[in-house]
Amino acid sequence: MGVGEVREAEGYRERIARRAAMEIEDGMIINLGIGIPTLVADYIPREKRVFFHAENGILGTGPSPAKGEENPMLCNAGGFPVTLMPGASFFDSATAFAIIRRGLLDMTILGVLEVSEKGDIANWIVPGKRVPGMGGAMELAQKAKRVMVLTTHLDKNGRSKVIRECSLPLTARGAADLIITDMAVMEVRADGLYLREVMHPYTVADVIGATEAELKIDGEVTVFE
Amino acid sequence: MGVGEVREAEGYRERIARRAAMEIEDGMIINLGIGIPTLVADYIPREKRVFFHAENGILGTGPSPAKGEENPMLCNAGGFPVTLMPGASFFDSATAFAIIRRGLLDMTILGVLEVSEKGDIANWIVPGKRVPGMGGAMELAQKAKRVMVLTTHLDKNGRSKVIRECSLPLTARGAADLIITDMAVMEVRADGLYLREVMHPYTVADVIGATEAELKIDGEVTVFE
Amino acid sequence: MAHTGDRFDKVVSLEHALSYFHSGMTLMVGGFGGVGNPPTLIEGILEKGIREITLISNDTAFPHIGVGRLVTERRVKKVIASHIGSNPNAGAQMTAGELEVEFCPQGILAERVRAGGVGLGGILSDIGIGTIAEKGKTKVTVGDKEYLLETPLTAEVAIVHAKKADRFGNLVYDTSARNFNPLVAMAGDITIVEADEIVQIGDLHPEEIVTPGVFVDMIVQSKGVNWRWAWEK
Amino acid sequence: MAHTGDRFDKVVSLEHALSYFHSGMTLMVGGFGGVGNPPTLIEGILEKGIREITLISNDTAFPHIGVGRLVTERRVKKVIASHIGSNPNAGAQMTAGELEVEFCPQGILAERVRAGGVGLGGILSDIGIGTIAEKGKTKVTVGDKEYLLETPLTAEVAIVHAKKADRFGNLVYDTSARNFNPLVAMAGDITIVEADEIVQIGDLHPEEIVTPGVFVDMIVQSKGVNWRWAWEK
After folding, report:
1. The whole model's pTM is what?
2. Measured between CB atoms, does B35 come within 8 Å of chain D?
3. Closest-approach residue (CA) in chain D for A59
4. Residues of A in contact with D115 (CB under 8 A)
């Protein structure tokens, strides 16, 4: 199946992942969260060599194994079997988070429940409803050199997830650097949230209309096909 | 050379070590300090299987290697080449001291500058004169299940090293359990220091006369040949 | 450390190992999403009817996998974990007030277990500063920066899953089943290892050993994983 | 972490590595009694004329061995160590007021280096309570017990000696030359490895790697130990 065909079949999750992959540079150490972030790995061009970090103690995870060739002990942090790249290493959970806290992750790619125009992230608790726990998200959001948030622009009830102030308990303050949704690409800067790109077929007006946060514009807003 | 001959040639250091070895039980995990404590290993009967712990990251050191067969990287904490026993393991210095602080050493055998009747130990600094540093002695003295002190009874100037109150800065308070010198074997109990054995040819009166600390006697004082 | 007889042969029967478990105990378990949870010991806990457990574990796995089974069968009264999302029974029991949950950021949980295991009195961290994770924690200022004081964790019994153990208790793990296991192995007042393979002393290379046997009190032979993984169809 | 070009080939010349060293720097060195001190990098520091070093190291080795040479040649203005007894030059310089020495119990020094390397704000310990080692340290009470607050250590440059490094920087050590090296490897703002053998990525088994390469910035080829050991006649 060629690239064109992939795009034909592409849903919004895949498009977000494809756009996110463009942010990845050769040589990066990256942690991928569960959900849309996991899909990013499929869109990284072969010439960009990256090491994926899994918080359960692997540096250098590779693609999923062929069916029947799984080692049930060799899984990513989401619990799914993985393979290894050359140069991979195993270590305990304390070292996995030493790498994070020491600031050695070039990028972490996370899903969220809410993200604010200041870069505040909420993704671990909906009081009284869902309380999955923070897992490693606090460390990842607080300590990675670059935090990329991938999310649908709206929640199931049609409300903006990109907002002025988070209403849910925070995972980390001022953590997000770039937000990629099914409608737009937005950059968190010191003076506010900037709209950089809109996802085809949405217009700038569509995105501004769907966003509770204040969106600033500085220069051209391009369209991502 | 038979055992009798060894004893013929035996100096006070060897006799202290030989007496100390009698305290060692099968299965123990033991750390040996530099000096007389190092000699103890030579006197442990073969049927008593022990694991020696070295604070530079070895559990299970064995005897010295034959000349010419040393691995300069494989040394004990004193810097001398060692061999390994079956079941030995390597680890970093943090884990070496985790074992100590977690209380997993059954015994540590230390030299001292002074030891008090309360079990206070001073062995790392003579202010203004010698300041070698504490190395691992604070952790060892404070955390081993049993602390055995091996020392000459008197210092070079003929003054007692077993005293009421240490005059030198302490390594650890109330740490010593058993003190073995060239003159006596003494036990630190909650209510004071007890003379248990005298080393041949010394008498109880000799030992009491040479000891600044108060020596209590409870039952028979035996003679160690 | 429990004295279980011969230091040079710590292999015991499952029954003997289970004699150290009791209802109301604190139990620490190595593993992450079920991977590295010791299946045979968990089965034994269920069969022996141990209840009212205070569980320290990275997560509550899945409903029918690993440590998740203890939650599903209501053997746990409190859990200290970083994540319970993959086991809906944990969330439901928590919401119903039947399960007390103390959340801890994952890397801090790892360091708290390690701190207990290596005999530290606590650690200082800035993780969770400015969030509700601060709640109830002492703040300590070092230089001009504020940190949260995180307390060490130990447990009456710690259970781990190793790939291989020699009879002294030296351990190696299986790929990413290492995770919390080497930390948990240090943090038990009694540490019990379930090993897929038990070998003689001297069979493991000194450089390959991850957990020195001095931390281990007992070893039981694993009967292998007795659940289907979530990814298996 | 310094960006030194290709993350997948961190091997550099000794000259390039030395360009990150300067007089007045903080330098952390792995090793214990000289064992595990990186000989080629130490030789390079001497040849380059680096002075006024603040040295963090378990000990000052021996006068003509390893890191001891930096002290003997008066390149060190301050040392944080657990022991200087095997290097009489260190003691003499200290007594003469030419060398500042901060003593730290060995296991606490290891934990302080680790705390710096793993990004903690400090650790609490009861080691040295009731001794002069308390001096100048903040006390923190946890529960009903008092602990000393021990601060993390990092350095501008950390140097370690490995047995093997792959070009990503994954490391294995040689027997007891491991000692402080894996801790020091984490604690450098720049970490430079001297390796006896440099291998290709993929040549080290994932289970045997002690230090993941992500902590390493540069690798230089060792020229081997250039001193006689104290035990050699």
Report:
1. 0.97
2. no
3. D212
4. none
